[in-house]
Every structure is written in structure tokens, then in C-alpha cells.
Amino acid sequence: MSDDQSRADRRRVRIATYSASEARHRRAMAIPSDRVPTVEELIGGAAPWQDSPTADATRWASDLVASPERERLPQAVLAALVTFGEVPRVETAHAVERACLAHIAAFEPSITTEDLVGEIADRATIYGALFGNPAAAGRAVAILHDAVHSYLYVAHSDPVPLREVVVTLLHMASLCSRDLPERDVGNDLQVGWSFGRANARDLLRTLADVARPPSDLAALEDLPPAGEDEREPVPAADILALAAAAQRAAPGVVVIPEAGSGKKHTGQAKELAGKRLPLRLMPNLEELGRSLTARRPWLVQPISRVLSVLAGRETVSLPNLLLVGLPGGGKTALAQDLADGLGVPSIVYGCAGISDASALGTSKQWSSARPSIFTQLLMDHGCGNGIVTLDELDKAGATGGHNGSLREGLISVGEIAARRRFFDLGIDGVVDISGVSLIATANDVASLRGPLLDRFTVIELPPPRRQDLPVIARAIVDGMRAEMADGRWLADLDDAEMASLGAWRGGSIRPLKRAVERIVALRSDRRFAH
Question: What are the C-alpha distances in Å from 279 to residues 135, 185, 269, 339?
């Protein structure tokens, strides 16, 4: 077996092993909402119960005190746990830790009791770190270092749990403020949990990139002294060959093949015929998720569901998605922000009232010939992938029209296999538009039932809530700034202006947007200048 084949086989084994480990870890982290995570699950990356260290601490302590395990606990530890459950703070967490360590330091005949007390001490240390105590964070780092050692040399566990333990270790290390006085944070560091682990994951990714040098890195003694590199220059022909090989290896797709005999392409199609268009790579999904949910906190679950199906994909591609929700709930805006966040070209095609199939291209036999919107999107941007948002698909004309039907036409591009060999009437040939992803929006799916709906994954979007008013109002003002020549002149809404929006009780964003625009317009009215 050649070295290249051997390396390829080892790489396939590593990929398969990592994928299986990822799947096992995801199943292990699917913690029911009716229980708090164990200390092993917290170390492995699970979020605290209800995403709140305080709520987690209160629930854990009360459950433990009420469980049969309380009979095995020393009185000092039990008393400290009761106090901690009632007042979960830095000092009460430290009291639990001290009581546990004092008991462990004394002789304990029962190994199971010693393990239980040690686990309680570790959990109290982690709570102290999450409550903002730098000293507790330092002790948590020591605990996690031992856990990493166990994964590496004792348990020989899966790579993904080991990765998550290291992320938690780096997160705890970021909470150690050596140069600052210890502080007692009475409230949760809820934002710090997700934000801290995200930063720790980025740091781990950077460390992984630089920790091991490439195998073909020359030894230091083999390098010539600075300024005395006597290696012969690489011939220009070799450079061109290497560049061509790199271009072939990069992800790409030939959207428009060369014209066959007796045919010829024109316009943009002629320029791109036979050329390999690049495919945009998948961005950091964690960052994208934080960005999307920050503006739409009422859509955390639907957004998580969408992003979960993108994990592991090298290039940007989505299954066919149908976003369903009440009018004015922000379906189209979510689709646009998703496309922008993924970094691919996109277009919003309004389907309401469309009673023909012109979106799929018009015949080249006519003077009004044009390619399909899918092919045109890729040609306009010189890119192999993109997103087409089919807005208000449920309001498109019924099937069976004289000039064709948009709904029936979409069935022909509903499968990836069909998009790989799609006959575009405007090109008069087969094109590869498999890089185009479809996102449709609708208020109701009743009129779409049948073969078209079967080709989409339906994502139900709940309406905005009353408590989301500040977030939505801020987003509306940000959108108005983006349309101005200098958005700095548009100030945020003040308390009085926000109070005037109190009549909005959730639901459609459109009346709220009109109200915000009216408030901004009144700012320039001299009657309200003072």
C-alpha cells in the first residue's frame, strides 16, 4: 500500500471515529429538562439547569438533601448543603467545599461515601467559579486538569468528550482574575457561561492549529542561515501547475457545462461555460447561532434546529426549509439574515400572485428568454452555491394554470439529484444548480400539501412575545440606521419612547415597526422639541 493510500485510510478511520464519538456525546448531552446535569456532564460541556448556575445550585442541593443519599452524608456537609440550597452564593459554596474536604482529610471507612463527598466538593468548587470567584476558578482548573489526565491515560475515552473537558478547562481558566480582587457576584453569570465557552472553544481551535507542526517541516539544522537561501527558484511552469492543482482541489462546481455540438452559449452563460465556480465554506455555526438568537430570542429552538442540520458540512448547503408562522412574525427577515450569516449570495423571490412557471426559466426560442432564478443567481455572483427564498409560497397561484405553475415547477427542483441535472430552458441545456438551497415562507401549509410539501422540512416559528419588545425595537432602529447616510444621527429610543410602545402585546412586528417609525418622525416635530 502506498504512503498516500495509507494516509488516506488513516484519515478516513479518524473521521469515522470522530463522527461516531460526536454522535455518542450528543446523545449523552441530551439531558431531560426535569433533572440537573451531573458533575461529569457539567465538566463535559452541559449547561447548568435552566441555563442558570443559581437555579442549578438550588435544585441540586434541594434534591440531594431530600434524597436517600442524605443518610450517608456527615452532619457538617449536610448542614452546609442546606444553607447553600437556601442561599446559593460564593461563601456558602465555599463552606460546602471546606466541609467536604475536611471530612475527606479524616478517615472515612466507606469508599462510596468518600467518592460522594468528593463529588459534592468538586461541584461546589465549580459553582464558586461560575458565581465569579477567581480562587474557586483556579481550584476548578486543577479539578479539570485531573479529569483530562484521566481521559488521556486512564479511561482512554472518546475524543469528543475529551475535547469538551478541555473547553471547560479553558473556560474556567478565563475566570481566574489574578490581578483583580476577589468579588462576590450575587447574580448569575448566565451570559458568561455560553460566551465563556465560545471563547474557550475558539482558543482550543487556535491551539490545535499551532500545537503540532506539519510533518514536512524542515529541521532547524537543515535550514540555511538567514539571507543565504541557495535553493533554486521554482520554475514558473511548476508554479502554474501547483496553482491549477490547488484550484482543482478547492470545493467547486461546474454550473454551466461546455455547449454541445450545434449549440452555443451567449452572454453570461458563454463566459462561465466549463468554469468551476467556487463553493463558499460553512462559517462558524456557533457564532451564527449567537447572532441570530440575539435578535430573535423567541426563536431559539427553531434556529437551533436549523443550525443543527448544518453541522459537519464543509460547504454551505441546507435542506429545503419551509418557515411557517403568523403574518409579520419575521419569517422573511430570518431567512435573509440566515443567508447573510452563511456568507452566500441570495435572492428573495415573491411568490404571492405568481401564476406561471417563469421562475424556472423561459424558453430560448423566444426573445424574452431568460435563465431560471437559480441559475441566474449563481451566474450573477460567480459562485457555486446560494440561497433562494421563496417568500409567501402558500399565496402562489393554484396548480394547473395556462402558463404553467410555480408550485408544480418547484417539484422539479425539489430534490438535490434533480438540481444536479436541471434542464434550464433559458440556457437550453442541463446545468448543475445543486449548490442552490431553498427556503420558503408561508402562513399556512394547508394549500401546499402533497408532493411539494413532502420535499420541505417544516419549521414552525412562534410569534414574538411581549417580553421581546426591547430587542425588537432596537432591531427596528438598527434597520433604520442602516438605511441612512449617517446612522449616528439616529439615537436609540429613550425610556419614555419605549413606554409609549407598551400597547404592543406581541404577535406581528409590522404594527410595532410603524409605531417606532412614527416616534422617530415625531422627534423632528417642533411641538415635541422640548
Answer: 48, 47, 18, 14
d(CA 388, CA 368): 22
Q: Identify the pLDDT of residue 217.
A: 39
By the 8 A CB rule, do 422 and 413 touch? yes
The DSSP 8-state label assigned to residue 461 in this structure reads -
d(CA 47, CA 193): 8
The β-bridge relationship of strands 422-424 and 429-431 is antiparallel
Report the alpha-carbon distance of residue 272 to residue 431 in Å, rounded.
11
The SS3 call for residue 345 is coil
The answer, as to whether pTM is greater than 0.90, is no
Quote the CA–CA distance of 332 and 395 in Å, as a whole number: 14
User: Which string of DSSP letters, residue by residue, matches 467-479?
Assistant: GGHHHHHHHHHHH
Average pLDDT, the chain: 81
Amino acid at 381: H
Distances (CA, A) of 275 to 100, 250, 383: 68, 13, 11
Q: What are phi and psi of 263, to 5 degrees?
A: -125, 160
Secondary structure (DSSP) of 128-186: HHHTT-HHHHHHHHHHHHHHHHIIIIII---HHHHHHHHHHHHHHHHT--TTS------
Q: How confident is the model at residue 155 (pLDDT cuts 50, 70, 90)?
A: very low
Q: Quote the CA–CA distance of 320 and 337 in Å, as a whole number.
A: 17
User: Cβ distance 117 to 100 under 8 Å?
Assistant: yes
